[in-house]
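Extended Data, panel c. Modelled sequence:
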Amino acid sequence: MSLDAESYLKTGSNELRVLEYQVSGIIFGINILKVSKIVNDLAKFTRMPDSHPAIAGVFQDMGMVIPVVNLAAILGIEVDRDSEPDKLLVTEFFGMHVGLWVDRVDWIHHFGWEDVIDAEHVFGSLAHKYTIGIVKPSEDRMVQLLDYESILLDLSPQLQIRNESSYQGAADFTGKRILVAEDSPSVRIMLVNELSELGVEVVETADGQTAWDAFQKEPFDLVISDVEMPRMDGLALTLKIRQSDRPKTPVIVYSSIGDVGMKSRARFLEVDAHITKLNLSLLIETADKLMRGEKVDQGIWEDTIQKRKSVETVPLD
């Protein structure tokens, strides 16, 4: 692949734009690509009795009924009972919209994924259930990046059950080796469990750089990679694979981001398929075809975009 690919990647790969927000004075951040809208004055929404303590209710926006998640409640942050958050980040994960109820929205910061500090390196074995990374806009300021995918899976366990693979093809992965690059522990565990049941030898990594180190040491029949990852994102990882001595290794991008620009860059880098989390059946079917040397119908790109075009309202406990 020509070096033009590297120039192309500089327009968006391995770059992270973090929207900074606060919950009870604690600073958090989210990839701006996951935010579809900011509601500055959430005056009215419907309370939901007998729901999970972190579900504040639902509100309607442009014909969609969107659940409102009180981040303070799920993160165990004490709040002033006399005041409530009034801003909502409308986000999209797993093909569904969810509102994150926060106090204030501050800045958008630009980082490289290599600037993201892995929470494991900071906390070690100490409990840090939802903090997945840390970025530092300045020497005296730190922004926590949360594992929003794990938060949603905890709030809605049926998401995991509903998205278990139901692929009925004659997939036989015995003896195959797959490299999985995924920074969300919940999603990574789901992937490893599904693939292991099919007889796959899985090498799991939590960031793109570790995945690239593993790829250089030994061959794999397939690489399944998230896009958002510390140290090196999935598109930069794909470029390195395409410029390696094993450039034909099949690569599937498995991402919760449906950004058109990201999909365009993935296709430019000759990613074999882009599949939206948590479509495990389509993932297994596509992996089966690629490891048997079959070409994946290019329609899969459009299919994965259209499959969840109708926003789902998934019940949250």
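The first helix runs from residue 4 to 9. This feature is highlighted in the accompanying rendering.
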